[in-house]
Amino acid sequence: MTTVGEVSRPSRVADPDEAISAEELQLAARNHGIPLEALRYDVTPAGLHYLLIHYDIPDVDPATHTLTVDGAVARPLALDLAALRERPRVTHRVTLECAGNGRALLHPRPVSQPWLVEAVGNAEWTGTPLAPLLREAGVAPEAVDVVFTGADHGVERGVEQDYQRALPVADALREEVLLAYEMNGAPLLPQHGAPLRLIVPGWYGMAHVKWLRGITVSTEEFTGYQNAVAYRLRRDADDPGEPVTRIEPRALVRPPGFPDFMSRTRMLRPGPCTVDGRAWSGHAPVMSVEVTTDGGANWAPAMLDAAGGDWSWRRWRFEWSPEPGRYVLGARATDASGRTQPVEQPWNRGGFANNLVQRVEVVVVAE
Ligand SMILES: Nc1nc2c(c(=O)[nH]1)N[C@H]1C(S)=C(S)[C@@H](COP(=O)(O)O)O[C@H]1N2
Ligand SMILES: [Mo]
After folding, report:
1. Per residue in 280-327, pLDDT tens?
2. Which end of the chain has less Cβ packing within 10 Å, N or C?
3. Is 40 helix (H, G, I), strand (E, B) or coil?
4. Nearest residue CA, atom 13 of ligand 1?
5. Overall average pLDDT of the 127-136 stretch
6. What's the pLDDT tens digit per position in 136-160?
7. For ligand 1, is residue 137 a contact (CB within 6 Å)?
């Protein structure tokens, strides 16, 4: 890693009343979220899926792009897209969520991509499983980490780098991990990693390396920026922290009724309506979803539709018949591991994994 300018300061935390800056807005305009009404689709159309791009979308020619597999392997490999497409083909429906989802709602606010709750999508990713390829290369018994390198390049808090993320060998060898070349049945779009990306079902977005060009097996723990400096759950700047890994459970409400242009407060007519949304967890299947209409004072169980696969979000719905008045809707998912969503914000220095229950303001108005 080359360092440029100030070396690796931890991300800044905003002052209590500090507004979102033009720099944060610049990030937000590049990296859009899912419009929440798109929670209606089982599979998120590619253009409505959230985006997170640390640097620039790199210029990669699919005709000449090569994936190399090297490091602590018996037989280094180099494969072009045609060779990858000839290998066994698998499709997984996978909920992807950025680890920074919920960051801008934290108090105080860690200054970075200012997500509210919309950094999520559920797409069908097609590609070839990684594990057989690693076995063909022959992973050394003393291997510790597998490092994935993207074709994109930039500087982050003073550290110049290619985007790189490592997975522990056991996680890289899990059968659901894919080298994906299609999203929703079409070749990957440039912004989603064309022509090749990693898909690590159940893990937060940072693990799913886009524009994948290299896989290096290492006998030492990877100390690159995205593992060792970013994406750690730290209490304060001096805390080495714990790595961010799998997605914490979350349910989102598809906002009912129609919005006010500026505030996005929802307007709804009185009477029976179905409130619905999606719920997911990267640890274990979602087992239950509860709904509140009074900002968390009372909870009622929601109905769950059939599961959409091991790695996909699940639809939930709730029959509601409100009288005129003001309401604050939210939903809370619990998974089979017993994990659920907190009622107090899970604050950390980087603003990761904030799965605090959503607040959807609804005004029920007579016609
Ligand atoms: N090479 C590369 N891969 C990357 C990133 C990146 O900036 N560069 N961003 C990561 C992060 S933080 C997220 S949340 C997901 C977003 O994937 P998407 O844009 O396809 O939704 O990609 C991940 N893979
Ligand atoms: Mo992310």
Report:
1. 999 999 999 999 999 999 999 999 999 999 999 999 999 999 999 999
2. C
3. helix
4. 205
5. 98
6. 999 999 999 999 999 999 999 999 9
7. no
Q: Taking a C-beta distance cutoff of 8 angstroms, is the pair 218, 147 a contact?
A: yes
Taking the domains of the chain in order of start, what are their residue ranges? 2-243, 250-364
Identify the CATH assignment for 250-364 out of 2.60.40.650, 2.60.40.1840, 1.10.10.60, 3.30.360.10: 2.60.40.650
Ligand 2 is an ion; its neighbours by CB within 5 Å are 52, 98, 205-206
Q: 2-243: which CATH number, 3.90.420.10, 3.30.70.930, 3.90.1280.10, 3.40.50.300? A: 3.90.420.10
- Secondary element (H or E) of residue 226: helix 225-228
Cα–Cα distances (Å) from 316 to 6, 43, 169, 193, 204, in that order, read 47, 15, 35, 31, 22
